Amino acid sequence: MNTIRIHPDDNVAVALSDIKKDTVINENNNAVMTTEDIRRGHKVALFDIPEGSPVIKYGCKIGIATSDIVKGSHVHVHNLSTALREDGTYSYDPTPRYVCNGAGRTFKGFVRPDGSVGIRNELWIIPTVGCVGSVAERLAASCQDLVTGSLEGIYAFNHPYGCSQLGDDHATTRKILADLVRHPNAAGVLVLSLGCENLTKEQFMEELGTWDENRVKFLTCQDAVDEAAEGRKILEELAAYAGTFERVDVDASKLTVGLKCGGSDGLSGITANPVVGGFSDRLVSMGGSTILTEVPEMFGAESILFNRCKDRETFDRAVSMVNGFKKYYTDHGQVVYENPSPGNKEGGITTLEDKSCGCVQKGGKSPVVDVLSYGDHVKCPGLSLLSGPGNDMVSTTALTAARAHMILFTTGRGTPFGSPVPTVKISSNTGLFDRKGGWIDFNAGTVADGTRSIDEAADALTDFVLEVASGKRTRQEINGYRSIAILKDGVTL
Fold first, then answer.
1. Does the domain at residues 122-246 carry the CATH identifier 3.30.1300?
2. Are strands 43-45 and 74-75 parallel, antiparallel or unpaired?
3. CATH class entry, domain 3-81
4. pLDDT the model gives residue 91
5. 22/25 Cα distance (integer angstroms)
6. Domain spans, the chain
7. pTM tops 0.85
8. Fewer Cβ atoms within 10 A, N terminus or C terminus of the chain?
9. Which of 228, 168, 166, 153 has the alpha carbon at shortest distance from 198?
10. The pLDDT value given to residue 29
11. Helices (H), 341-391
């Protein structure tokens, strides 16, 4: 099989491998001869599509033909354009409740005194202001000798904010950093301040509320004679505390996993994203939690998610989230459909609707139980939607702040970056997996190769996720790639 027609209503198919001109493909007894070469991940017309008519993929309209498209020809940016607009109305038409009957599973995690569970036992250094980011990084590098026993690493998370910000930006920085301090993958946290920044130590303590003084400690660099020496002394105390934790059997219902994609190609919505969706349904069936973000990459596919909201109130909040992000675009004089990226287009994705319909496959079929604002954390088990942009580092930081223990990151083109938590890279095609073995953890390209079904790959991914939760290191962890980024919208002083 060299093509796939994803939905019976589709008038295009997707090439699963490179197809030469004059090749006959057969989709549901409809013989089509290609009129030109079709690259893997790109679309081929199964019927004549007149100018002005909708192009259908995933059973959804992904745009409008800008010229007559002949059966067998390549469908892409030269003859297809978005139909998205800034305004839109939505109605709640709930779909039947999907239930995945997954068997109960366990993993080996670290149970914290407050009852939360971590899948890593690390020390994190969180600078409250960018001015001491380099101090944090130097401290982490110089104290790696403390990583012994059950302590698994010391990491610093540099960023440029915490000063010269106003209003919402200042509040956002404070909230995201406090969320990171609370993350259960960190057995201990050193909060590093400068002393004269807008985000004062007192403000940050107020944002944290209550904290365990054994786990969270503070250092103001301007008050220290030698911040490196004093920082090491604090990290020694935190390392001793972290060493009191050991892995124990934990029910999979305690696991929270973030869902993200980046550098997508035409196969992402056919292989990697549905496989992740299958995993999501399995974890939800075990009582666990998954989080789907990237709101701009829901544009054009919103109803797929909206109609799975558990009730009208959740639907209304989901609509408000999407409309709020559209307003964010228009307030800055931007159109909502300025996406996909050049890399996406190179891989076969044409319009934002095309990208979005593939993107939301990561959410599987389970009901949407909650809608979270940027900086919020998961409050109930099941699939939650999180307000956040498509940008890889900003959105994975938001997922981490929302208490995701790890992030599943699907990609058709590959990327080395990592979030503060284990970031599992999942390739949409086998070529990427073979070529970038130093980046990619799991190959969903086997679905396109025909060696695994989506369900078989989802089962294998579930096993892999539980191994990572139990301590197996991801490629990103092995490479030492970890970073954060915080959403900024306003004035810098």
1. no
2. antiparallel
3. mainly beta
4. 87
5. 9
6. 3-81, 122-246, 252-479
7. yes
8. C
9. 166
10. 80
11. 342-346, 352-359
